[in-house]
Prior knowledge:
This protein is an alpha/beta fold.
Amino acid sequence: xxxxxxxxxxxxxxxxxxxxxxxxxxxxxxxxxxxxxxxxxxxxxxxxxxxxxxxxxxxxxxxxxxxxxxxxxxxxxxxxxxxxxxxxxxxxxxxxxxxxxxxxxxxxxxxxxxxxxxxxxxxxxxxxxxxxxxxxxxxxxxxxxxxxxxxxxxxxxxxxxxxxxxxxxxxxxxxxxxxxxxxxxxxxxxxxxxxxxxxxxxxxxxxxxxxxxxxxxxxxxxxxxxxxxxxxxxxxxxxxxxxxxxxxxxxxxxxxxxxxxxxxxxxxxxxxxxxxxxxxxxxxxxxxxxxxxxxxxxxxxxxxxxxxxxxxxxxxxxxxxxxxxxxxxxxxxxxxxxxxxxxxxxxxxxxxxxxxxxxxxxxxxxxxxxxxxxxxxxxxxxxxxxxxxxxxxxxxxxxxxxxxxxxxxxxxxxxxxxxxxxxxxxxxxxxxxxxxxxxxxxxxxxxxxxxxxxxxxxxxxxxxxxxxxxxxxxxxxxxxxxxxxxxxxxxxxxxxxxxxxxxxxxxxxxxxxxxxxxxxxxxxxxxxxxxxxxxxxxxxxxxxxxxxxxxxxxxxxxxxxxxxxxxxxxxxxxxxxxxxxxxxxxxxxxxxxxxxxxxxxxxxxxxxxxxxxxxxxxxxxxxxxxxxxxxxxxxxxxxxxxxxxxxxxxxxxxxxxxxxxxxxxxxxxxxxxxxxxxxxxxxxxxxxxxxxxxxxxxxxxxxxxxxxxxxxxxxxxxxxxxxxxxxxxxxxxxxxxxxxxxxxxxxxxxxxxxxxxxxx
DNA sequence: AACAACGGGCTTTTT
DNA sequence: GCCCGTTGTT
Length: 760
């Protein structure tokens, strides 16, 4: 009955905090979710209307689970009116309600990354720019960065720094692309992922009545995973909380792993500035992991400079040491770990679902898939190509999208000739050109050739008109017809179902099944919606679908499987036995992270997240050589292994004492004294001998490079290409160089890590 | 307009 | 090594 008794002292005081700003710094496995859910339950028990509570989570799944748990604690229908979800889904809803104020249709389309890149590519082509220089991915990242920092196209154009950066990276036209991209999205009635936050900001800025409404609706605001919010999200929260200041943020700076997409750890640090009288709660007792795991994780994260002081501890038993497994190849790594899982399962009577294999990049899953399949061990891969990103799924959804919003040009382009209906490239080109000339959407042109004459042959026009008629008939029903019925009608009357059914190749069969699965999903969605109100339409389904990820698409049947996923995907999860694989320099830490301390520290936090997923045992593995880019490359073990206090490690199949290189340090005496003498005091000490060893082979060369490097030198970098040294700072080990690379802009490089060649 | 063959780029991570 | 997109062929 009294849920407060299920909490420890520090959890309880945090839960009992009702009014005023508060921040919870929650170490890994410290019961963060429990505090969040119980605090909401506590608010409700204290008479706060669920209508007035906003809780923002990082994933849809987290929101769903939290809602269920709250429902269990408070019972009844109390939890129904909570506003709970990801930033993107919550504000997408709010935007739909208020779209007119922004000049958007309420059924605006949400462009996913693919749509965005495709549109950018079109624009780059239309501008006659070289898409080797203006790569859609890079352009997208640049625009995304701007939006997440609330820089409008106009502000972008007027920002001399940004313009200078773009010039230096040989992309002076970027501001024009951004402008056009924003205009085209608007014309298409589409928002991309970043727009959902950006336009929310615009809305709250320009519509005082809307701001006022939500400020008073959301009297209590809770934000989970606060360390992974970006500036745009930060401002939304700040504005909404401005009246009541009942804001509760929960996070762990040590688990911030999304800065690459604009997340800003400083939001945590700035919290005290915005709310000087805030209350800080720290959850430091770990309930998840063995003491060995907790201590090992602590010993690694200490290498990071940027962190909030925090002492994670546990009363859990000591547990087993962390196994370090050395393999010759990536395939062997797969075999060894698959066998290990099989053995452990047999010996300890475990389930498959007790195991997880975590890796840095999705590409690594292959070797494990193969070996697990050979041993007949069931597994499930999370991530990779999401269900909703499969071609056949996107195709069918594109029909839904187009029916809901005919101006959605990305959807139109996708399906105008799929299934094949004889509308070819030249025809589409003509129509597109005409649309640009008349300054209307493609749909406007093709739905009214008398008004917008196009120079294409009559048969082509007929085919297009047939297509248009079809879409129009769907459009007529999309707001009213039951979702499942219309979806099925579309799937069959467009010929998609038949097209896939006729394909008897294994892939074709899977595609057909996927479509059936999507239809089943729509059915389930309808049933769920009908519990609340009236008929669910496809239009309703579309509101959700763009923001679904495959974590939201879990098949319930047969859940006893080994989990394979990236470390990013594992955030928030826990498993009894965890294998963190591919611990090699240039893979984990990623090569791309080695140029700056900030990036390297993020990799280290990622490693911290990986290790702290485990309850009972952790094993770390690496391969001496592995296939990458189709080539065999040899690698050294990751620095992260060496950064763990060796007291917590156990090295399997150590290398023989053959006077090799860095691996010798693994044959450490277990005796503490001699350990101290050899390696010095943790954690700082490990670095020095490590680096000396790493540089052994090329020490001379590198020393020369470092000493001779002067401001103004032209240098070459393995990844960034040629560049010019702007300035040098620091001494000894820590010499850093600001180097300007035409390809990527200014980079600060730690010379110790960056292999710079002086040229000319 | 449809299909086959070739070439390039890619591997961080995702709402 | 694979996937995607572009090019060339019919």
